[in-house]
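Hi R.,

Here's the input for the pyridoxal-5'-phosphate complex you asked about:
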Amino acid sequence: MSTQYQRGLAFTEEEIFGRGSPGRSGVDFSDGGFEDIADPAKMLPAGYVRGGLEGFPELSEPEVVRHYTRLSQWNFGIDSNMYPLGSCTMKHNPRVNEAVCRLNGFTDLHPYQPDEDCQGTLKLIHDLGRWLCEITGLHSATLQPAAGAHGEFAGLLMVRSALQKRGDARSKVLLPDSSHGTNPASAALCGYGSVTLKSGANGKIDLAELDRLMDEQVAALMVTNPNTLGIFESDIVKIAKIVHDRGGFLYCDGANLSALMGKGRFGDMGVDVAHLNLHKTFSTPHGGGGPGAGPVCVTEELTPFLPTPMVVKDGDKYKLDSGRPHSVGRVHGFNGNVGVLVRAAAYILSMGPEGLREATEAAVLNANYIKARLKEHYHTPIEGNSLHECVLNDKYQNEHDVTTMDIAKGLIDRGFHPPTIYFPLIVRGALMIEPTETEPKETLDDFCDAMIDIAEKAKADPESLKQAPVNTIRRRLDEAHAARNPELRCTLCS
Ligand SMILES: *Cc1c(COP(=O)(O)O)cnc(C)c1O
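And here is the predicted structure with pyridoxal-5'-phosphate in place:
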């Protein structure tokens, strides 16, 4: 059992306000000639000096250090334990890539420095674009977009421009009902309505339904492959043909590339435009709201519409090219989030083609291992093997009045971050598990043991799961109350 990970000292921590006492401080300015600095009234015009601040905490330095250190220990991250959030690809990001992206040659560049001074960074951007095209089987790439959603927006802008140039402006985008919420949002931002494609019984796109809805007003079909259920859209070539025959473009949401690298290429499947999430597949830590990157790869047909400036190779030099008349223009300041691009390039170079293929194989093996170990204990709405993630639900546990929410809270008691729950929407009570390739078998076993223990508890003592989590500092929160009555002001300001 995994509880070994969470035994020991767990500190509770109260708000810092109301602690300490007047006059206590971390730094003593009382002598040594610093009196002027210590007193704002001597340094600033009267209008800028606050008379007093009621309730402002006055504490010593060690008290402050402990306060924030304890709070930081409340964080759960991929560095603490497995983080199986389906669709998010919370894998370990090798530290060497962090070291590479912090090299001064990258970090000390000024964005306005002339191209001649930035040859290394420009070469990296150029080469990374080529490598991503090789991995996806597409023709050219932009690395500007800051995330997957931003890549979708940029990709659909290119589709829109291409259609307008043809004199065939269209009005809507088709989306499977399992698609990620960013897909319809991007369609709307580009001025398209979205039409939902109901999935077939096997969780895949239903060709007859596609045939019925794909008309001459559809600019693009946005597919996710493998889709959000972790299933490969095996009819993708037929899907592409239906879409192309009626003048549309095939957009592929490539957020699940961790299941395909080195195995299948979007371009070979008939995809015209695809975004990738470098912060999922290619080694950038995410989840805390830090920067990401959502490069978009396109066919030769869509290449004239790529955002500018493009990094191009001219002889043995690299330069920024803005002279592209059909470009959709800039979608990000300068060259995008370059630190993320450096990590991705370092990751690809250190893995090599064989390493990327092995990562995919391990990601798929891990997900299927979990599915195989859990399928006696949890209902698996989609039969057969999946790719890099698997979807279970709470059907068996519902018989004992235990729900997906209770299972998720039970996992917290057992030392694991819960998987994605209640998504995709087409599966009732979904538990969507993506272990990623970086978990060893022992950790997968610990996770499965915890899940099986929960399934046993659901039968023997369902009430105990309703109480979960009990091993945490805070117990189950009233999420409905928090959502309806959010308290967003800090105690000090209100
Ligand atoms: C994560 C994800 C997105 C959105 O990507 P962001 O980088 O979070 O904007 C889109 N589609 C799928 C399938 C995803 O998993």
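One thing worth noting: The radius of gyration is 26 Å.

Cheers,
M.
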